[in-house]
Specification:
This protein has twelve helices and nine strands. By secondary structure, it is of the alpha/beta class. The protein folds into two domains: about 200 residues, Rossmann fold; about 70 residues, Helicase, Ruva Protein, domain 3 (Orthogonal Bundle), CATH 1.10.8.100. The strands form two sheets. The chain has a seven-stranded mixed sheet, with helices on both faces. A two-stranded antiparallel ribbon has the order 1-8.
């Protein structure tokens, strides 16, 4: 059938099925072939790949993925879209559509079934309200994923890629960069979607690290320290940690660890690198194993 990247074809399908956009699912369908080509190129899809697509919508991106990948598994939460996908993807024998919430899918079982447990590539045009839970869920659950290429709100993409000391740098930057290397492949204006979102978007590729770039003994504690450091950005790191119920260390212990790292008492979380957060966590969780430099 004619590609859905043609806006007229998208309108035709929506009218045929009397489809109503669901605000709760953050539905914005791509209608720009150049952007679709950029997503495929950024993800580096080949016939060797099994791709998991999150939120296929009416199948616009899915059609492009099916033509370039070996297999596509599309997970769609909205049951009203399933009959539409059956029509728009009828020409593609290498696509499986699953009507489930991606946050409730057993992704490890899915990867075992469709790719023998080997890493898959994740591609998605994500609803903005659920971007972070989906991406961090994939990483933190250690699902076999080699890369995640997603369309997200532009400011979220910038936060993922941000460096220490910048206004966009925060807990999300550190969490993403611990697990992956972020690369912004394209900026996408609102007129590339139907309906048009109110904000600009960006395509970002997160290439999974083979091993974390820093060595930390207690990964979960490091992320608690990171979150506490950014919960109140204007406060010093010491006060941020002191005020958090998740942090079991005293003000004195934090001060001592910072002093041994050569960092001032007045430092804020936004000034610390991922390496320094890992070192701070290691010093606090195992102080006896660290000698004063």
């Amino acid at each position: 059938m004619e590609k859905l990247s043609n806006p007229q074809k998208t309108i035709e399908i929506i009218k045929k099925y009397e489809f109503a956009f669901q605000k709760k699912f953050g539905q914005n369908f791509l209608i720009d072939s150049h952007v679709l080509d950029k997503i495929i190129a950024a993800a580096g899809i080949t016939k060797e790949d099994c791709v998991v697509e999150i939120g296929p919508g009416i199948g616009t991106l899915t059609q492009y993925l099916a033509e370039t990948a070996g297999e596509v598994v599309a997970v769609e939460i909205d049951r009203m879209l399933i009959p539409i996908l059956e029509e728009t993807l009828a020409d593609y024998s290498n696509v499986t559509v699953i009507n489930q919430d991606i946050l409730k899918v057993d992704l490890e079982a899915l990867v075992r079934e469709h790719n023998g447990g080997r890493p898959v590539k994740v591609v998605a045009n994500l609803p903005y309200y659920i971007t972070t839970p989906i991406i961090m869920g994939l990483f933190e659950r250690h699902v076999p994923v080699s890369s995640i290429t997603v369309m997200v709100q532009k400011e979220v993409a910038e936060r993922m890629k941000a460096a220490p000391g910048t206004k966009d740098y925060g807990a999300l930057s550190l969490a993403v960069q611990y697990f992956a290397m972020p690369y912004i492949a394209a900026n996408v204006p609102p007129n590339c979607f139907m309906p048009r979102p109110k904000v600009g978007s960006a395509v970002i590729r997160l290439t999974r690290h083979e091993a974390p770039p820093v060595q930390v003994e207690q990964e979960e504690m490091m992320f608690k320290i990171i979150r506490a450091s950014f919960n109140q950005r204007r406060k010093t790191l010491v006060n941020g940690l002191k005020n958090s119920p998740e942090i079991p260390y005293s003000r004195e212990e934090v001060l001592e660890a910072l002093q041994k790292m050569g960092l001032p008492e007045s430092i804020r979380g936004e000034a610390l690198t991922l390496q320094e957060f890992a070192q701070l966590t290691n010093r606090l969780s195992s102080p006896d194993t660290w000698e004063q430099p």
